[in-house]
Structures are given as structure tokens and as C-alpha cells.
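Late entry, evening session. Most of the bench is empty. Finally got around to the prediction I had been postponing all week. Sequence below, unchanged from the version circulated by S.P.
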Amino acid sequence: MRVVLGLGCDRGTSLETVRKYMGTPAVAEAAALLASRGELVVEKHKYRGPDGKNATVSIARLNDG
């Protein structure tokens, strides 16, 4: 199975700003789905680093067809 990762990070951008440009407040999920043209396998997973900053990741199955 080939997959695509969608990544997001905590940059102080409001969810409404992201929604305006991406059509969804969930950047990691949207990036994975857009790049893969497939289906979401792992919904947004949030990680807080030792520096206190957040990162998110989502995984989508790559649609080869």
C-alpha cells in the first residue's frame, strides 16, 4: 500500500483563515487527501514537541487509478 502524509504545524494561523484558503480547517487531512486523491487512513494525529509547539499528521492511501 502506498500512502501520502499530510502535515500541519502550529504557526498561529486561525482555523477560519485556513478554511478560507483550503476549504477545511484541518490542513493535515486536506493535504493528504488532495495529494493522494484517495481515502483517509489515519485521521489527524496531534503531537506536541518538547519545545511546546504542535505538529499534526494525517495519512491517506494513494489512489493509483
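Two things to note before I forget:
The chain has two helices and three strands.
The longest strand covers residues 39-48.
Will write this up properly tomorrow.
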